[in-house]
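Give me structure tokens for this 646-residue protein.
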Amino acid sequence: MDVSNFQKIIIIEKINDELFPLACSSIENRSQVCFFSIDEKIRRDPRVQKNLENGFFIDLSKVIFDYILFMNAAASAHKNLDHIYENFFNKFSSIKITKDLLGSSEIENMYKKEILLYLNDLYYLEYKINTYAQNITLPIEFYPAEGYDLHSDISAPLSKKVIIVEYKSLKISLINYRKRLEEFGLLFYPLYILLKKVKGISFRDTPEKFYRLGINVNLPAMFSWNYHYINYLVDDLYGFPKDEIIFIDESYKKEIPNEFKDHGFAYVNFLHQRVSISSKFLGKVIFHFIPAWIVCMFYCLAEDPHVVKTTRLILSDYIRWNMLMDIMRIQNHVTILLPDRISKNLILSSYGCRTCYIYPDNYSGDYHTGWDEKIPVSTEFAFMNPQYAFVFGQKILRFFSYNKNLIKHYRPIGILSAQRVKEIQVGKIHSSLKNLVAKKNFAGKIVGIFDSGFVDWGPNKVSDGIRFAEEILLLLDEMPDISIIFKEKRFLNATPQLMEKYERLMNHPRCLFVKKQENNCIFASEVIALSDLVISVAYTSTTAEALASGITAIYYDVAGKDIGKNYYFNQFPNLVAHDYSQLKNLINYWLNTVKTKEFESFLDNWVKDEIDPYLDAKAIDRLQNFFIAENTDRQRIADQIAAERS
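Here you go.
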């Protein structure tokens, strides 16, 4: 319906029981009502269904917005963070108390990261409102879901023609009051952890157990479809003794997951199995933690919810990690892919534990923007503070360094999976994929193809995924001298729109379709190892992994939007195709035209250092040597700890 038929545009962030009457009365007053979310029971109301059909209601969650809005929001959040923090958050007393408790000014950055994540969400919403409202001349009112103090600041990107209206009612006030009480109540959680875990007091001087490696359980299915994130640490092939490794789970599961038990690894969480703590840790709780906790409880009654939440996490970390290091000593703590909290790393480091972060990926946030890479665009990978960060090459090192991180030592070690690829090729690692390929009786060159997570809020939309599958089918028809191994990235039920096209690929005689499965998984390294050429939807890391393995590879910008030399990978010659015609040309170029020496020259000039500093497929060896080289003697560690305590 033409918006000129309305008198006003009303944008409601979330239609719930409190705001539904406002939405209905606005319709009666000839206003168009737009919303980003709606309670499901209200959506089923016949009035809502009718107004969605006639255009009086607009569900903005169904509108496909350009991915650049998300990146704009992240860049704006970084730009405005210091201003927002100084004006709205620096005054809160809990921040100083937690800094004193942990003895580090770095704790302030934990509050800043929480605000950064919050601003990113707020600004993303505002950029979407601006986009929807840009060609509308009618008055526009926006009703946010919660308090909007930060939105009204002059630094916010929300268009000035959008009027912010805070909807007030007794019920909303009571709901907000209840939320504040709930947040306050959660501050008792650190004490709950303590009471749940502790069974008594011990007068021992040193921890009872020692582990060379503690691995953070921060990913699901670590021994099935996410095994490729830890295999370089725990696979028997690399010789790390199982009794020197412990998996540490913060998820509060009541039972040990079978995957750890079945594979013979030690496992600990903070609800399973009660322990005795030392008198020294008890002293920390009584004389340091309890006074800080009481004062924070008092101040948090009047502090911003984001400050209260962060304070709770810090206090919980104080109990968790001091307790853990009281009952055992861990030489190295490793977190993979998703970063740890600042407070956790500070506490572990205070016990002499080396805090390590491994980023087994080649994704950098600026690949799809074409912006200067120095502009910070990441919120999740910001304010990290491990002592060591293991990254592939210089590109990822720069990505982290430009995003407000406080990493003490960067270790560019090369691409980890490249070593797995080589070991599969020489038969050192068994791959069930080899038998599947043999049964297909493929003739000619094999092209390994990797799709992406096609989502409408990302750079590659679902419609791009459908076209990508269609074009791969077209390649099979037009290039009869190639066969394809197609590896899907996400479980197919996450994107059912792709089902029909993917089923055609599954049934094609020259295509081996590798599904993502929960068990008996086939990993990307196996597909790469058997490929003559790798094609990845831009900018999935598998192309970089193939190049580091000495296998030709290209990217396909299936959306066709990343045009120009300002996009990072476009600077690499003959690496990125932006349409189907270019894709065919690059396949022919790398499979049939380029000679071995030319490819080696390409690797030396463009891939070495930037993507992989070594190009020797030995990154896992370098990582293992780091953990094994120093302080490997257990008795020496025990003597050192005893000396520290005496």
